[in-house]
Amino acid sequence: MNKKNSGLVYSSEWGKMCPDCEKPIAQCACRKTGCAAPPCKDGIIRVGRETKGRKGAGVTVVSGLPGSEDDLKKIAGELKKKCGAGGAVKDGQIEIQGEHRDRLVAELEKMGYRAKRSGG
Fold this sequence. Notes:
Distance between the termini: 42 Å
CATH superfamily of the largest domain: SUI1-like domain
Largest sheet: 5 strands, mixed
CATH architecture of the largest domain: 2-Layer Sandwich
Strand order of the largest sheet: 5-6-4-3-7
CATH topology of the largest domain: Translation Initiation Factor Eif1
Number of helices: 2
Oligomer: single chain
Shape: globular
Order of helices and strands: EEEEHEEHE
């Protein structure tokens, strides 16, 4: 089987995989050259709410932010302070505990991003 045509995008062992080099996103070799899969094609940051797999506890998920894992951690730290809540960076997305969609959209727009609420 040709490795380039396998279409592997997710591994239960490693999580999200780079479609180009087929390594875990954290170890992606082509990310350094700038040809990694783009986080969001239209340039809009989406802020939604999820409860799936969290026993009913909701988190606000920010997806589509460009940048490396370190950049996302810095932005996540600022957003968590603004919301007064905990959170984490997982799979290229920022998760903030609780319902903070309106506040996060406003803060991201202040930072210069195009952001909008997603979901209900």
